[in-house]
Amino acid sequence: MAMKILVTDKIVDEGIDILKGKGYEVDERFGLSPNELLECVGAYDALIVRSATQVTREVIEAATNCKIIGRAGVTCDNIDVDAASEHGILVCNVPTSNIVSAAEHTMALMLSAAREIPAADAAMHAGKFSRDRFMGHELYEKTLAIFGLGRIGGLVAERAHAFGMRVVGFDPYCSAARASQLGVTLFDSMDEVLPIADFITVHVPRTDGTYHMFAAEQFAQMKDGVVIVNTARGGVIDEKALSDFMAAGRVFACGIDMLEAEPSAETPLAEFDRAVLTPHLGANTLEAQMRAGVNIARYVANGLEGLVVPTVVNMVSKEVDEAAAAYIPACQMCGSVLTQLAREVPKALSIVASGSCAGDMQVLSAATLSGMLSREGQASVSTENADASARRHGIKMEAQQASDSRGYDSIVSMEADGLEISATVPGAHREVHVVSILGYRLDVVPGDHALIFTYADEPGQVGRMGTILGEEGINISTMAIGKRADCREVLVFLNVESEPSSEVIERVAQAIDATNSWAIRL
Ligand SMILES: NC(=O)C1=CN([C@@H]2O[C@H](COP(=O)(O)OP(=O)(O)OC[C@H]3O[C@@H](n4cnc5c(N)ncnc54)[C@H](O)[C@@H]3O)[C@@H](O)[C@H]2O)C=CC1
Ligand SMILES: O=C(O)C(=O)COP(=O)(O)O
């Protein structure tokens, strides 16, 4: 019987023809309700979507025959990738299919907003030849600030240079080499960039960390008359705050392709002629759709045929040795902790694994890198693209097996920019135990929120920490104290049940005279 593929968002006919030509049965069913999707998805071997279909954990659990989900575009934020990995389902995308289109749409919105083209066009269509109403701004010799210097941000930088703009940027994960190659002056904080920009364009992923990254506090720091463009994701800009600053005349104009309420057109910006609004059209060109539709069809067919899928975004891009697979969460966790300890993505990573998990260093490296980059929505690291991803972020990686597993069945140890962490996964429960951090030996199973302090080992210190956290209503669920043979200081790892504010952390740090403190979120 032919394998069945469900396509729930429109892709080009050429993509559908490739699949049918290979003998697959293809059902195109657009606009399914969540319930309709849940009811039918179990019958299919593969699913192809764009951004409209929400592939939730529930959908993945109902997709009992599914082997691969193809995203005919770049961003997989409508797909629960972790759930797919847990169910052994590959997720792949076409990561460069629409980036030129998105970059060109950004320039189109920038020019339209700066020259009020939609309002002028609407006036002409209404029979009004009113030249005096419209007085725009040149791009030439203006400062463009790009937030997010990834694939699309980089293409926008190249195009902005052609207009004679000065290009500055903010992206905590962009290497100095990439910024210099793009001709972008990189700044370390948003606060330095906001006051100097005449134009601002946003190309960051939508994550907890970028939600309302541009709110009243940020608009207040901008130059009067700034033009703002968002072709990234709705919610990165607080639309209410933007409309307040437009109403006050502080923001000259904006160009917005992505609204928080998508797929609705509801936004407070709708009342402004100078808000140029488009309904998520960044990828809507024939060229981008041809690349996305044709390639996703090829990759999904490859996945079903057991061939290499070059753009897998989750970790199951190949048959993974079971012992190594058990260490994927440990490596992801350690990678994430390392980035948080370093307070930035480290630039050099060395991984040593010993014991039975060390059979597949490629998987362990990719998992660690995905953890290192995951905090800002950069988790699209697979065994296929790990090397390229590391290069793009300027990270030097090396991995090796070692024979001494220090008495554990398996252990992974990593060092990144001089910071160390080791973890093991004992027993059947598959809990990740961190057994060393920064050289301090301990044994702790990290929870969702943790605090780490290093301090002089003196009586009363634990009581001081407990008292302050108790006063603040923060429960400590578990605690481990790590020691180092060469040092009179200790390290405490506190799993806490809620996230303490930076003021609370500072209070604790002062009370114990901590030499270092970190809040870790996993
Ligand atoms: N309008 C449309 O139709 C399309 C929209 N997109 C959206 O465009 C955005 C960019 O896409 P790509 O360039 O492909 O992504 P990318 O992953 O190549 O680049 C994103 C960049 O943002 C940076 N970043 C992350 N958090 C940041 C922060 N807090 N501050 C500053 N920089 C931060 C990352 O380091 C990375 O360099 C995404 O939101 C994507 O969803 C993508 C394609 C089409
Ligand atoms: O690829 C992306 O990230 C996009 O935002 C494009 O989405 P679409 O395929 O047009 O629904």
Automatic annotation (TrEMBL):
GO biological process: L-serine biosynthetic process
Residues annotated as transmembrane: none
GO molecular function, one term: phosphoglycerate dehydrogenase activity
Source domain of life: Bacteria
EC id: 1.1.1.95
InterPro entries named among the record's database cross-references: ACT-like_dom_sf, ACT_dom, ASB_dom_sf, D-isomer_2_OHA_DH_cat_dom, D-isomer_DH_CS, D-isomer_DH_CS1, D-isomer_DH_NAD-bd, NAD(P)-bd_dom_sf
Gene source species: Slackia isoflavoniconvertens
Stored CDD domains: PGDH_4
Domain ACT, chain residue ranges per copy: 450-522
Described function: Catalyzes the reversible oxidation of 3-phospho-D-glycerate to 3-phosphonooxypyruvate, the first step of the phosphorylated L-serine biosynthesis pathway. Also catalyzes the reversible oxidation of 2-hydroxyglutarate to 2-oxoglutarate.
Swiss-Prot/TrEMBL keywords: Amino-acid biosynthesis, NAD, Oxidoreductase, Serine biosynthesis
Pathway: Amino-acid biosynthesis; L-serine biosynthesis; L-serine from 3-phospho-D-glycerate: step 1/3
Family: Belongs to the D-isomer specific 2-hydroxyacid dehydrogenase family.
EC class (word): oxidoreductase
Record-linked PROSITE patterns: ACT (PS51671), D_2_HYDROXYACID_DH_1 (PS00065), D_2_HYDROXYACID_DH_3 (PS00671)
Pfam families: 2-Hacid_dh, 2-Hacid_dh_C, PGDH_inter
Name of the protein in its database record: D-3-phosphoglycerate dehydrogenase
Catalytic activity: (R)-2-hydroxyglutarate + NAD(+) = 2-oxoglutarate + NADH + H(+); (2R)-3-phosphoglycerate + NAD(+) = 3-phosphooxypyruvate + NADH + H(+)
SUPFAM superfamilies: ACT-like, Formate/glycerate dehydrogenase catalytic domain-like, NAD(P)-binding Rossmann-fold domains, Serine metabolism enzymes domain
